[in-house]
Amino acid sequence: SRATEPRERVRVDVSRDMKRLRVLDGSSFEGPSPRSAKFKRRIARYFPGSATAADERLDAEAIGVKKVREAPASIEVVEEPGEAPFAEAATNDEPEEKPSAAKTGDEVEPVPYSSLAALDEGMARIMKSNRKRSRDAQTLLKRAVKTKEIKFFNRIIKDFGNDKQMGFAEEAFRRIGDAGLSPTVYSYTNLLNACVRVGELDRARKVWDDMIAAGIDPNEVTYTVLVKGLAQDGLLAKAARTVRDMTAQSRAGVEGVAPNVRTFSTLLRNCVRHADPGVADECFAAMRDADVKPDVASFEYLLKARCAAMDAKGAWAVVDDMDREYLEVPPQAHAALATVSSLTGDVEKARLACEAARQAVKDNGAGTVEDDGAGELFGSGGGYGSDSDERKAANEQVKGHKKDKRHSQQQRQQQEEASKSVQQFLKLRNSDAMRQVEEVEKFLALGDDFVKEVAAVVNRGPESESSPVLIVEGAANVKKPLCFKEVFGNDLPVRLEVCSGHGDWVTERAQRDEGKANWLALEMRRNRIRMTWAKAVRRRLDNVALLCGMAHEMMGAHVSSGSLTEVYVNYPDPPEWVGSSQCLVDQAFLRDAHRSLKPGVGHLTLVTDDPNYAMRMCRELSKVPRLFKPTEHGGKPFKSGVPEGYGGSYFDEMWKNGRQNDRYYIRYKRV
């Protein structure tokens, strides 16, 4: 009877940092059996932070309960079978969806990860890999606690950060205190770097504040990581002030804070991304003032920043400076010079730069991707899901010193791998340079008159009212949505590509659709918008307009309801880590896309080469069946591979050459 049958008692402890459900015996929380769905729902209701999401958890990605060990402090993997929305999808264990505060009445439970993985080999492979990475990472955390060595903790925080495993990096930092140790400046620096690498600037600021509050002074590496985070977020002026403060402190006698060439190069690299040659020039002046000698990378960043501003004269001046320093100009710099010279009408210098780029590729001896089909160029990466050098080095610290002979063999192997990586990197850059050179040569082959006409537009600049390609930057520049009839001068259908990158795909499509449709290209990076503008002008297109900013903001500010027939998202950057809030295709984006598309005829198309992101996007779409429905036969949420003739980008072709062939085509119709 109900009165005589004892109910199972468990206690639920939710780790604040790892967001993981822990079930231990001897508890005070009473409820139904932990194996039941009712138990799961109750835990999700009372402990919303406990639900697991899929990729980066301490144990498995599934949720349920195994037999609890007798030891009170034991932690067990929780598992529960998922539900299958498709008849052909056999489910295994399944991550539970984290309850969302923003959920509305339109949303339903998402399709399980296991059901999606059952439909595609690549998805199944990545889920297995994610589980292995999680198990390996947990093993390292346990070993770190046993060794009680701060250097070991610092090493795994660094490795987790480099592998963009933010959750594990934070947990490793937290466990420093559990091991009875105190974090050092290297601990804080490595955690700060983990935050910056995944774009979590607010978290990075908190780590910085905690370090200062703990009385630990930052060193030059810590400052450099902070500069990187500020610059990546577009705060170039603040990043430049930080560099100047480093110089001032160093001159005041503070040791270990003097900026080095890497500090300045970090700022210069982001000046290129944000197409800001002004800050780049200031940075170079500050570098010389600090008695830091620029290297090849520093000069290349300065050159590319000037090229992004169509300052051909200033870019060629950088080449003269490099000659005086006896530095070799890399192929990509020559290619950038060829591009900007051709666009501004200097045919002679453009041809000279093309020849120099080809010679530079020949001189460095790395070849190009096209030479051998890339081979292992894009093979399996490192991290804790594979036998990476970082993982081996961490394990060595636990196992103790090995024989000298084996240690020497390992050192030689690491040196060989490093040399191979350098050659692969050069090969990739060479290929990119040759692609640009070929584009310039095709453009010059159209004749001097054609080049002069394009140069006349380019020299007036993208801000000119006579520019055939409109650029709108930021959501605050226009207080009302764009009138497409005024922008394009016609009533043709309007299509939008989000994350347009370097503009290859959208300009090709726009040229194909001349007289049939108009195109919008939306991209957050300013230098890429400038590249797309130049490519559109070079093709003499007048059916393209460009939006520069964040997708959520720009679509809401500039795209009116029911004005688009198509929205394309091609190869968006995947979320940097499992808990990242910086995810393009979320519920807010889907609702904005639904609002912008014409009822009944509008379509949303998502294309990615990342199995994790493909599953995440399919799950987001499955939550809103009242907004979008799949177009694949039988209601399948995606298609493996892209349709013939869909088009691609240069990097898409390189991934294929590198034998990374996972492609996911997700096309839904607006309801």
Question: In which range does the helix fraction lie?
Answer: 40-55%
**Are there runs of 5+ residues with pLDDT below 50, and where?**
1-35, 45-102, 373-405
Strand fraction band? Answer: 5-15%
* Biggest sheet architecture: 9 strands, mixed
Which structural class do the helices and strands define?
Answer: alpha/beta
Global geometry:
globular
Chain-wise SSE layout:
Elements: E1 9-14, E2 21-30, H1 37-46, H2 113-117, H3 121-147, H4 150-162, H5 166-178, H6 185-197, H7 201-213, H8 220-232, H9 236-251, H10 261-273, H11 277-289, H12 296-308, H13 312-324, H14 331-343, H15 347-364, H16 369-372, H17 389-399, H18 404-444, H19 448-460, E3 470-473, H20 484-488, E4 494-498, H21 504-512, E5 518-523, H22 526-538, E6 544-548, H23 551-558, E7 566-570, H24 587-596, E8 603-608, H25 611-622, E9 628-630, E10 639-640, H26 650-657, E11 664-670
